[in-house]
Amino acid sequence: MSGLQCLATENIWFDKQCYDDAERRFYEGASGPAPQQQQQVKAAQQQPPAKGRQHKRQHRNSSSHSGDQELVSRMKSLELENQTLHKVVEDMRAALQKLETRVGVLEKSPAPAAVPCAKAAPVQSAPAKQVKVENDDDDIDLFGSDEEDEEAECLKQERLEAYAAKKAKKPAVIAKSSILLDVKPWDDETDMAKLEECVRSVQMDGLLWGASKLVPVGYGIKKLQINCVVEDDKVGTDILEEEITKFEDFVQSVDVAAFNKI
Fold first, then answer.
1. Is residue 32 left, alpha or beta, with left meaning phi > 0 and alpha meaning psi from -120 to 50?
2. Bias regions of kind Basic and acidic residues — which residues (predicted)?
3. Could you report the per-residue pLDDT of 242-261, keeping only the tens digit for each?
4. How much is the pTM?
5. Tens of pLDDT along 211-249?
6. Which of 83, 145, 149, 226 could be 212's S-S partner, Cβ–Cβ 3.0 to 4.6 Å?
7. Can you tell me the distance from the alpha carbon of 183 to that of 204, in angstroms, rounded to the nearest whole number?
């Protein structure tokens, strides 16, 4: 009973014609259209519609018309350019003919005569001064005289002496220097007032003592910083150091802290 039910529900055999038509259409599509259909397609292609032909004709006419207009405009511009060139050539020919005529006339005409000098405005020259030259051989001394040489030598000597006297009266520039000395004591028990008194007791030509002050060094020890002005030709730093260090009871050393030219 189940087999009959299966056959009843199976419908492939009843639709066999449909399957056959589908198979036929499949093979026709794989092998190409039938000859009759190909002929119909060719006929349709060979006979375009009337509207298409008319549109193509209009397009062809419009394109030919625009091309003709462009060609006409170009021809007109070429004609104008040709006329301009012709005019330029004619002008050049006329100028060349005029030039040739002028050259021929100049070649045939004789050279112009020179303008006489009499027509030129006379140039008035300044009157020359008449110099009277006396040719007296007796008054000319070719070798000079000894008296003139002596006078020139005396004049030269007088001028040298006057210059030397003027130079001697001028005061000479004295070179001076400002020196800052650092005078160091032995210890903190040294009497700094006595030390400064000893330093200022050093007197010599060209030496002038200035201001002084005590500068702390360390551990309660202070050094004496004193300023002086010296003449370079008379006083030097070595002499100052030697004179100050003679006070051995108070002075340990002397250093130059600053040295400036005045």
1. left
2. 67-77
3. 999 999 999 999 999 999 98
4. 0.37
5. 999 999 988 899 999 999 999 888 888 999 999 999 999
6. 226
7. 19
